[in-house]
Amino acid sequence: MAVPKKHKTRSGRNQRRSHDHLKASNLSVCKNCNFPVLPHEVCANCGFYKGRQVLKIKAKAAAKTRQ
What we know:
The chain is α+β, with helices and mostly antiparallel strands. The chain has a domain at 27-67. Helix content is 24%, strand content 12%. The protein is built from 2 helices and 4 strands. It has helices spanning 10-16, 58-66; strands spanning 28-29, 36-37, 48-49, 52-53. The longest helix has 9 residues, at 58-66. The chain starts with 9 loop residues before the first helix and ends with a helix. The relative contact order is 0.11.
């Protein structure tokens, strides 16, 4: 079994872990409804992608019929 020859200091341990942090997701705004959306993804709120509708959202249609 491998055993370290020297004690790893807190500084060395933390320097090694410095790249393990989480990065904030890169959100953009939907041009149709101003809803935050990931880049290159269909908007979950309105179903638009690159200015054209690719999905029909049932929740949105149901909300319009209730009004």
